[in-house]
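Appendix C reproduces, verbatim, an entry submitted by the partner laboratory led by Prof. M.T., so that reviewers can inspect both the input and the predicted structure.
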Amino acid sequence: MGASESKLRIREMAEELRTSSIPPEREQSWWAPLWEAPANRQEVFTLITQETVRQIVEKQPQNISLIIEQLVTRIEACERDLITEYQGQIASHLLNSIRCLTRILSVRMETSQENAVLDETLLERTAEALLRALFVPQVTVDALSSPSTSFMDYVWTAGVVVHKAKQVDSFKYDIARAEVLDAILVLSSAPMFTSPLAYPEQLPHRAALALVAPRELSRAAAVSMLNTVLRYDDVGWGIPYGQHVVSGGERERVTVSALQVFLVLSDPYGTYKHGVSAFSDILHDLDDEKDIPFFLENVLRLLMNHHNCLGTYLPGSQHRIVFSPEMLLLYFRAFETRSSFSAEIGNSAFPAKAVFPVLYWIHESGKSPQALGIVHICAFLLLHLTAERDICVALNSKLSDKEVFFDLNSSFVSYADVYTLVMFRLFVDGPGRIESLHHCLLSSLANVSACLKSLSPAPAAKLVRLLELLAAPANLFCSPHAPERLCFMLEIVNNIVQYHYEGNTVLVYLLLRRRRLFEALNALPFVSPDSGYRLPAALRAEIDALERAQGAPGAQAPSRVDAAGSTHAGGEGSGEGSGESVAPKDSGASTQVSDGHFDGAEAGVSSQAGDRTADGAEAGASAQVDAGAGGEAGDGAEGDSGEKGSDGAPGAGGPAAEAEATAGEAENDSAMAAAEEAEATVGRG
């Protein structure tokens, strides 16, 4: 039968399957065109259209089960024949059968009653047949010189678990492996078409894939998929444009499919019928000395691919991978399955480098509302990472030249500076729908704060600015959770001052300049709602003005705050809007409600007289606080014996005290100059 005749026969078969019931005892020759005619994936999808499969499902649903059974039977027969002797025609029949199965299952899974037609036995047969297809000699793996009955001998490439593979990593099997992996992914996609309430009970597909097959088979499949991902070469020979020459596009295709299948089947929260998933066990059982360094190094390498692509002199000289979000999920999956993973990162040779890719991705994704899911993943990753003290301490190390964000000032010299700035930008310039993550982000920043030995002037200024905007009445009274966020921010500042006062003199100076802010917070009444207490008239007027502005026609609830302490509606328009501005009595930051979209989060920062110019009383109080703090710290830089008082007269203490006071004044002047320059930088945006 020629190719054109077989294709015509497939169309006739589709019409007969749609209009009449096919008896199970129909001869094999009637089904042969399904695996004989197509030559590639595109032809299968052209001959067997989605509309054709949907019509068969609607009019003759029993025929769908019969088609799948015939295809699975043919796959099993081809696998048995190819184990002993390779035959090109049988290999073609195997791949064509898998392609037809992928096409039919992708449409069949759309209905919610697949189990009414596809019984559990057929699902288990399909799952095991597809997993075995991953290790068919001369189709998806090389034939060994001495045939082995152990599937672990056919693992695709070395890496974790299998440190020396018997297979040679080759590109010639990438297309066939990708076809099989796509079929497995389609078979695992039933939960996508299941309601969230019924999801825990509708897992026969994933249970069959992970556990119905022999344990060694599923374990070999999991190791092959994971090592294929970790071994992916995103550079290619280490030369510009090398990756485009090495493997074309098929290696990336099989890598993406392998990673997606692994993530689906390693879900630790899946309720499998026969126990824990073998795919989850792979991450849980990684060897601490050999596997963890290899896993962590390659995950971080692939996560840094996008950042590295932006730093090349030749445009497009390094290939930009398309599966970075999946790599973030794999990184997070390691934390889910290994309780000791944070400690293992802390004990590794590069704990700070494990945080930097997450900061990069949360910073880049925070610019786009479409990447909100990546922001959520990164926020939870940071919470896991900062729970380990060794990682937090390592953030004080210096950045390398290749790890600088390209839109940031090169003066940020440590990972802690980048961490602080990224958190500030998420609050000020992030998507409007991340308010639910504020608690998580501040928790991670609080974990880090006790280990911040020395912040640069600009990050210190922005940390104080974040405290100001969270303390502004427009933000403090806009949500029941706003006071909790302010308490977190006060804890962050208190941790830095308490544990690392000496190295953060700029931050301390900036806090002293905000004396009125703390006085205003101290004057706030903290009473229970049923105590009958009434707010002061001025504060009540501010809150009423905010409520009227939010309730006006076309107004929306505040969704984010800017660097001046203003709360802006989450609308999509870019106009200026007609807002109402109410200046609080005791706060140095202004409050503003606007109906327009915020253009440039840091562009609207205004200088407040109470923050920028200290009067005589404030200067005297600052000097006294500096003197007292310096005496407690035990160093001579801020000693109280030679410090100037509020009247400008030097204190008594002899020549030694005067010399010490002179040194203290010089250091204070340097810190003040750095702080004022940082404030000016923040004001310029």
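The radius of gyration is 32 Å. Additional entries are available on request from the coordinating office.
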